[in-house]
Amino acid sequence: MGAARPVLVVAEKLDASADMVVDQLNRRDVAVMRFDAADFPQHLTLTAHHRPTDAGWEGLLADEHRSVRLEEVSAVYYRRPGRPVISDTVTEPYASWAQNQADAAMLNLLSALPVRWINNPHLDRVAAHKPQQLVAATRAGLRIPRSVITNDPDEARSFAKTVNGPLICKPVLGGRLNTGATRQLMVATHRTDPTTFDDSIRLTAHYFQEDIPKKYEVRLVAVDGNLFAGTIVATSEKARTDWRTDYENLEYGTTTVPDDVANAVRRFMDLYGIVFGSFDFAVTPDDEWVFFENNPAGTWSWVENRTGLPIAAAHADYLQGPTT
Q1: Chain centroid offset of residue 263 CA
Q2: Digit-coded pLDDT (tens) for 142-156
C-alpha cells in the first residue's frame, strides 16, 4: 500500500537522477509532484498561510496539471532546480528584485516544512564549501591530500617544496566558464608545474594539492547511511588527472567500502546534517582511500546505469518513509 502523503521533487526538467527517483516512487504508488523552481511564478502558483500548527505553513502549490497541499507533503527531493524566471514585461531593476523575492519565497517556504529532505537546501549550501569539507573530513577520520589555497606565489613555491612531488590545481568553487560559445567550458583539475609559478598567481585564489597516486577512483554515493561505491579506472593520462575530461577512456565497476571509511563518511554526513552526498575518493596503490570532496547535489545516475547499484531505490526508500 502506497504512502498517502505526497512527495515533492524539485529539479530541472532534464535531470536523469530526478527521473529515476520519480520512477521508483511511481512504482510504489507514492504521489509525486515534480516541478522546477524556474517555473515560478509564471507557470506555478504558490499560496501559503502561516497557522499555529505543527505544520506551520499551510496552502497550495499548483501548476496547470497538478496541485499539492503544503501541509500534506511528507518529503522533498531538492536537486539543483533553476532560479525563478520573471516575465520579460518586468524591466530592471524590478526584474532582479522580483526574481530574488520569488527565489526566497519558494526556497524558504519549502525549507520551513517539517518533512524528510534530500537535502535541505540551507544545509546543502554549507555542505558544498570545499575548504570546510577538508576540516570536516579530517574530523570524521578521513585521509585528505596536503592542500593550500593562496594568491601568494612564494607560498605556492614553498608548498611545492614541502610536497616535493607532483601537484594539481583545482577550482575552489565549481562552475563553468561562459566563453560566448554554445557550450560552456568546464574548469578541470589539472597538473601544474611549480617552476612556472609567477606573479599571475596574485590575480586570484589558487587551490593546490598534492597529486595522489591512484589505482582507481571511487564515486561513493551516500543515501541515508547506505553507501554505494562505483569504481572508475582511467585508461588515459588525461582521465587519470580528471576523469570528467575523458569519458571515452574510463572503465566502471563496484567495490566494497572499508569499514573505517564507511564509518568516517557517515560521521561526515552527520556533521552537516545531510542525508545525501556524492563523494570523490582516490584509492592508492596501497589500497588507502583518500577523500577529495563531496558534492551534496552531485550526479549519480551514471553510477547506477553503469553498475546496477540501487541508488534510486535508496532515495525512494527514504522519501517514502515507513510503510507500516
Answers
A1: 20
A2: 999 999 999 999 999
Residue 93: cis peptide before it, omega within 30 degrees of 0: yes
**DSSP code of residue 43:** T
Grid cell listed for 282: 582516490
232-257 pLDDT, tens digit each: 988 888 777 777 777 788 899 999 99
Backbone angles phi and psi of 195, in degrees to 5 = -70, -15
152 neighbors 298 (Cβ within 8 angstroms): no
**Does the pLDDT of residue 34 top 80, yes or no?**
yes
- Round the average pLDDT of the chain to a whole number and report it: 92
| Spatial CA neighbour of 19 closest among 222, 299, 322 | 299
How far apart are alpha carbons 324 and 320 in whole angstroms?
A: 11
The β-bridge relationship of strands 185-186 and 250-254 is: unpaired
List beta partners, residue 295.
278
- Structural domains in the chain, sorted by start: 7-118 (3.40.50), 146-210 (3.30.1490), 213-320 (3.30.470.20)
Please enumerate, as own/partner, the contacts of 153-161 that have beta carbons within 8 Å and a separation of 24 or more: 153/197, 153/198, 153/199, 153/201, 153/202, 156/194, 156/197, 156/201, 156/206, 156/208, 157/194, 157/197, 159/208, 160/194, 160/197, 160/208, 161/194
Q: Find all residues with CB under 8 Å of 255, minimum gap 6, and list them.
A: 218, 229, 231, 283
pTM: 0.91
Q: State phi, psi for 210 to the nearest 5 degrees.
A: -65, 145
Task: Evaluate whether 281 touches 295 at the Cβ level (below 8 Å).
Answer: no
Cell of 233: 579506472
* Residue 3 pLDDT greater than 70, yes or no: no
311-320 vs 16-27: helix crossing angle, rounded to 10: 60
